[in-house]
Amino acid sequence: MRSRLTFILRQKLKPQIITASLTSGLIAGYLFSKYKPIIHAETNTSVKVGERIPTLPTYSMSEVAKHTTQEKGYLFSKYKPIIHAETNTSVKVGERIPTLPTYSMSEVAKHTTQEKGYWIAYKDGVYDISSYIDNHPGGKLVLKSAGKALESCWKIFTMHDMDHVYEILEEYRIGNLPSGEREVNEKDLEKIIDLFQYDPERLDGKENFFIRSSRPFNAETKPSILVSSFITPIEKFYVRNHMHVPFVNINEYKLEISNEKSTYTLSYDDLTDKYQSYTIISALQCAGNRRYAINNEQQGLARGAPWYVGAVGNARWTGVKLRDVLESFGLDKEGKYVQFFGLDCETPKRCYGASIPIEKALSDDVLIVYEMNDETLTRDHGYPLRILVPGTIGARSVKWLNRIIVSDKEADSHWQKFDYKFLPSSIKQPQKVDYDNTSALQEINVNSAICYPASNDDGNKVKILSVQPNDEDIKNKKLTIKGYALSGGGRQIQNVQISLDHGKTWRQAQLEQLAQPFMRAWAWTLWTYHIPFNDLPSKPFDIVCRAMDTHCNSQPDTPLVQPNDEDIKNKKLTIKGYALSGGGRQIQNVQISLDHGKTWRQAQLEQLAQPYMRAWAWTLWTYHIPFNDLPSKPFDIVCRAMDTHCNSQPDTPLGIWNILGLMNNAWHKITLQIDDKFLKKD
Predict the structure, then answer these.
(1) Could you tell me the sign of the dihedral formed by the alpha carbons of 216, 222, 227, 232, in that order?
(2) Which of 68, 155, 377, 652 has its CA 20 to 30 A from that of 343?
(3) How far, in Å, are 19, 110, 468 from residue 31 at the CA level?
(4) What is the DSSP string of 581-630?
(5) Is the entire prediction scored with pTM above 0.85?
(6) Same structural domain for residues 224 and 370?
(7) Domain limits for position 9
(8) Percentage of the chain surpassing pLDDT 90?
(9) Are 182 and 210 found together in one domain?
(10) Smallest Cα–Cα separation from 360: which of 435, 418, 410?
(11) What is the average per-residue pLDDT within 404-433?
């Protein structure tokens, strides 16, 4: 979706405290005069700030000093009025509820099967999570805690220590533990072996990152840091770990390469000494980057870490070509997929794993990496070896690489089979999805975000944001906006545009990007736009950015539409059409809307089984609309398609308008009126 930055401006030079709501992109809460921002601007001005206001209550500094926690709020003084920053109250979880029945831990322990249900305990609470299993971000991993207390698991995986997790858990509350059993469960924590104690030290974590979880460690780069340099420094590059960081003895390390018939091994020195090294500059982005915006739209229904805009980075990677290694063992002419497994294992048989199509694996730029920005990989980034699959979601670039397998099947891991798949917006119950027939995400889609101006506070939480323009902006009477843009599959960013009027008109941003070969544009693009102060309105307004790549893939205006779960009736109007994409990308889904895009319905697809990135044939689609769903007056039917790389159609041609009228791929619409005799209700 497009990234949005909300500003609030004032014409008069009168101090104001303005609270802005969280929006897609960066956060609001700016105060401007007509010609220059006036909050925190250290310039000569007639504005009276921080002076006594007789109509306001009085607070002593000792009272101000008490407000330094999220629960009590934050108060500030000195050169500005006292501000109370809105905060979310903590969710009460596992507390005793007198009106609920009591179940002992021995009773909880009996509920570990589908027939009896899956029960767990936490603090003083008992929960039946049977209906939640398929919605759990870790899938059936949650069953390891069935019949037990959650404390032992959550002591290790502290990513659960978040309000929205507690809210979900309390939805499944069925009872209380007897008095004293909570204390027994908490005492058992002393027996837990903490694998995370061997994680690397992260001294600059809070300075450079918004930390999403500590165990496993997941942290995204602060927005202003992202756009401060074209190459993201290692210590400022986002970290996405699924489990603990393994400790590797390099003298004993072996990389295993195999197929169904043979197994080979390479030491670290074998790999670095026997194969030619290559270096590429490539961006790497978590598939969940900007998930927070979808959560805002769906009230937290999207599962996974609430990434803001910083789960992305751009680095110089050095290693050997995967193709060269496979060729050296004669493994390059068989199999449909190449699987990768890391050393980050929960059990010896359950390690993080992913796979990519063999066609991608044998391309020029998929590397087995041992250096990042000309330095040996750090432990957080995969030491001693990791795979780099440029232009593809970060989940496929497996860290702490242990095994490479050439196979006719995708990796048999939770993260390949269930976790990184794109489900259409019409799907509300993921547990009912046929995952075996749903494509695994590979290439990233086109994306952009606004990163400057920015706050040092977490973009997901901050409610008030003040900005001090730099000297250059004040001199030129312009507000500088900066951000990044990138696309998948080696497609270069063609343009980034900025709008101040909700997409009615657009302005072209300046791009900073590498000259890269066709379909091998792996590095990101940084962009800048300078808005004249005279163009800034006095009332609240949004700044929106959008990007388009060289294949005219653009960003949609919103992240979601609501599903329609109406049953299919026997009387139906048949709608048919076609869908296709370029570059060999297969069509993943086609959706139909009867209400101008407010709700969508899934069409049936007729398509060939085609090799990865060689899907040259079109897709035919069909949808049957129940007569009972058809209005009696003229109405529009709209269709839209999405390919396997999540490239979708824009809602109107405005975003791709060009003087020659080329490459229009906006939603297609037809207007119908149905004969009344077909619309009689049963």
Answers:
(1) negative
(2) 155
(3) 10, 60, 10
(4) -STTPPEEEEEEESSTTSEEEEPEEE-----TT---S-EEEEEEEEGGG-
(5) no
(6) yes
(7) 3-56+446-549
(8) 43
(9) no
(10) 410
(11) 82
Same domain, 348 and 410: yes
- What is the residue whose two structure tokens read 């002591």? 155
Is the same domain home to 349 and 491?
no
Which residues carry out catalysis?
A: 136, 160, 240, 286, 420
In a 13 Å sphere around the CA of 151, the CA atoms on its Cβ side amount to 20
Q: Is residue 454 one of the residues assigned to a domain?
A: yes
Distance of CA 310 to the CA centre of its chain: 9
Q: What is the CATH number of the domain that holds 583?
A: 2.60.40.650
- End-to-end CA gap in the chain: 41
Residues 157 and 213 in one domain: no
Domain count along the chain: 4
- Residue among 301, 272, 304 nearest 288 (CA): 304
The tens digit of pLDDT for each residue in 159-210 reads 677 777 888 899 999 999 999 999 888 887 767 677 888 899 887 778 899 9
**Tokens 């048949």, residue located:** 574
CATH code assigned at 186: 3.10.120.10
Please say which residue of 123, 156, 191 terminates a domain.
Answer: 191
Over residues 505-543, the pLDDT tens digits come to: 999 999 999 999 999 999 999 999 998 988 877 666 678
* C-alpha distances in Å from residue 515, one per residue of 339, 389, 511, 522, 523: 32, 20, 12, 11, 10
- pLDDT digits over 45-98, tens only? 344 455 555 556 666 665 655 555 444 443 332 222 222 223 333 678 999 999
The pair phi, psi for residue 30, each rounded to 5°, is -105, 150
Provide the Cα torsion 161, 163, 164, 166; round to 10°: 70
Is 429 part of any domain? no
Q: Which of 377, 421, 374, 359 is nearest to 395 (CA)?
A: 421
Other C-beta atoms closer than 10 Å to the C-beta of 518 total: 9
405 and 453 both lie in a single domain: no
- Do residues 237 and 356 share a domain? yes
Does residue 110 sit in the same domain as residue 217?
no
